[in-house]
Automatic annotation (TrEMBL):
Binds 1 Mg(2+) ion per subunit. InterPro entries: Dipeptide_epimerase, Enolase-like_C_sf, Enolase-like_N, Enolase_C-like, Mandelate_racemase_C, Mandelate_racemase_N_dom. GO terms for biological process: peptide metabolic process. It comes from Planococcus donghaensis. One of its GO terms (molecular function) is racemase and epimerase activity, acting on amino acids and derivatives. This is Dipeptide epimerase. Its cofactor is Mg(2+).
Length: 370
């Protein structure tokens, strides 16, 4: 089986409401969708959501990189040769993990379709019975976040994820405590600072005030390059620390292990270049006694399904946050969310159907590589 043709689409997924985190406000979500076709008549889908703030990639640049570099390079290769495909992409260009992830995800979709199995059956099988997801709350005033949190509990969500990290750290502490007060003491609350606290000392002072609030973890309290600072925070506080932006490559993971800088890792296919490396990172984390989560850059059914297959296949991946399809007012796939769980279809590959008419409608520009 050989890849004979690639179609690249630049799309914008419209959001139900703007997504607000510490470093950006998104009115819509730009993404790149690729379709790889084989000489056996199969089509595999992949997705890239480049995040300029995290991996340094940009939507329009990623389009050109896929068009000029990665897609021409893999024409003629077998999607099963995933190590060789990554090796070829890495030889062409360093970094650019989201663009590489699009190729990787499409190759796994093709592998699954070729053998008639869901992707999780190729990478570890079903290690987890249920894949649940939290309600993600954007940064707002404490009373508004508290009100939205209460509604989420009424809707049946099993956990909350609060986005904070804007303004003074004390304002964030107020937001978090207001939500805890509103939802009672037992509802799991995860906090994502998205690098928003300005120093390890400021983070320690804020986290100290949260130690009695039953917070599941504090995610990425400080800037991503400061892994030593993350270790300092972890050594001085009693709330588990999750690394997100700080962990992109396997080298980052080794540094986090060396410095004992985190309890939990937020692995995202868009940071680590796809499924192939995500499962390796989860395995390395397991050896170091760390738990993992699969997160996302707010992806459609394509990227989200890929993340859920990885989560399904690993025992130490205990949580997922791939809620992109729930945030979009229009989408291209049919990944099934049933409060508070995601149900993978069990069909071959990613197990989703891509609606071609919808994809064409949301496409800003496209090209074909043969
Ligand atoms: Mg995060």
């Amino acid at each position: 089986m050989k890849i004979t043709k690639a179609t690249l689409h630049a799309v914008r997924f419209p959001l139900n409401e703007p997504f607000i985190i510490s470093y950006a406000t998104y009115p819509d979500m730009p993404a790149l969708i690729i379709a790889l076709e084989t000489d056996t008549g199969l089509v595999g889908y992949g997705e890239a959501v480049p995040d300029e703030h995290v991996t340094g990639e940009y939507f329009t640049a990623a389009y050109e990189i896929l068009k000029e570099q990665f897609l021409p390079a893999i024409i003629g290769m077998s999607p099963f040769d995933i190590e060789a495909i990554h090796s070829k992409m890495n030889a062409l260009m360093s970094r650019n993990p989201a663009s590489k992830a699009a190729v990787d995800i499409a190759c796994y979709d093709l592998m699954g379709k070729a053998v008639g199995q869901p992707v999780y059956n190729l990478i570890g099988g079903q290690a987890t019975a249920h894949l649940d997801y939290p309600k993600v709350l954007s940064i707002e005033a404490p009373e508004i976040m508290a009100e939205k949190a209460k509604k989420a509990v009424e809707m049946g969500y099993a956990s909350l994820k609060l986005k904070v990290g804007k303004g003074q750290a004390q304002e964030d502490v107020d937001r978090i405590l207001a939500v805890r007060e509103a939802v009672g003491k037992d509802m799991p609350i995860r906090v994502d600072v998205n690098q928003g606290w300005k120093s390890p000392g400021i983070a320690v002072a804020a986290i100290k005030q949260l130690e009695g609030a039953n917070i599941t973890w504090i995610e990425q309290p400080i800037r991503m390059g400061d892994i030593r600072g993350l270790a300092e925070i972890r050594s001085k506080t009693a709330v588990p620390i999750m690394a997100d932006e700080s962990i992109q490559s396997m080298e980052d993971l080794l540094e986090i292990i060396r410095l004992e800088a985190a309890d939990v890792l937020n692995i995202k296919l868009m940071k680590c270049a796809g499924i192939f490396h995500a499962i390796q990172m989860a395995k390395a984390a397991e050896a170091a006694g760390m738990l993992c989560q699969i997160g996302s850059m707010v992806e459609s059914s394509v990227g989200s399904a890929a993340g859920y297959h990885v989560a399904m296949s690993r025992i130490n991946i205990e949580s997922t946050e791939l809620t992109g399809p729930l945030l979009f007012s229009e989408e291209i796939g049919d990944l099934k969310y049933e409060h508070p769980y995601v149900l993978l279809s069990g069909k071959p590959g990613l197990g989703i159907e891509v609606d071609q008419a919808q994809l064409d409608k949301l496409t800003e520009k496209s090209c074909v590589i043969k």
